[in-house]
């Protein structure tokens, strides 16, 4: 693979390049924001199979690089950072990042994550989603990626729509955090990473803005995962395994 590495820390950059476990891969290093923008705008970005971008650069922000890349290319891109809240990681995924890796990291793991993103990008097919589902009295149009209630509309991000789609495939049944993370977030579940919880909370807030009663239909099954209760069954299901509804 031809890989673009945007990293201003010489030690980190040298460690990645020298420890990269695939000898045949070619890594090109760019150490600043402005040079990276020139690479993107010159269409040279399309010559790379994947990119690794540091969030914190001395003359700019890796998240802005990501947004700029996404206006020009669908190249698999992983953000790396020495810090980052679950909310900031969720924002990066919403903006189109394929993964978000915290420092310090194993170079072998970084390589595996990038290879997986490139493989998925090459093999992915458009997913056939159900057109519509119900969350209590709130309708969810997955084609438009929107929540609808009595003439009011709230948009959903792509990842939020995938989460609801995955929950709707198992109506009334618990979806584990591992299952949701794998099929909606395209990553293995890590209990230290609260991105999944952040997204569930986001979806609940949006539903609650439209209809506070309907938010009860997205239930937490403590220690396991989440479930979407079919409207015909009602939110107060006696057979729900220890439901909890934090927001």
Outline:
The protein is α/β, with parallel strands linked by helices. The protein contains eight helices and 15 strands.
Which stretches of 5+ consecutive residues score pLDDT under 50?
237-247
User: How many helices in DSSP terms?
Assistant: 8
What's the β-strand tally?
Answer: 15
Mean pLDDT over all positions: 86
Helix content: 25-40%
Listing every helix as H and every strand as E from the N terminus to the C terminus, the arrangement reads EHEHEEEHEHEHEEEEHEHHEEE
CATH class of the largest domain: Alpha Beta
Please identify the structural class as seen in this structure.
alpha/beta
- Strand order in the sheet with the most strands: 2-1-3-6-7
- Overall body shape: elongated
Query: Biggest sheet: strands, sense, closure?
Result: 5 strands, parallel
- Second CATH tier, the architecture of the largest domain: 3-Layer(aba) Sandwich
Terminal residue distance: 43 Å
* Domain tally: 2
Q: Roughly how many Å is the radius of gyration?
A: 20 Å
Beta-strand content estimate: 15-25%
CATH superfamily of the largest domain: Response regulator
Query: CATH topology of the largest domain, what is it called?
Result: Rossmann fold
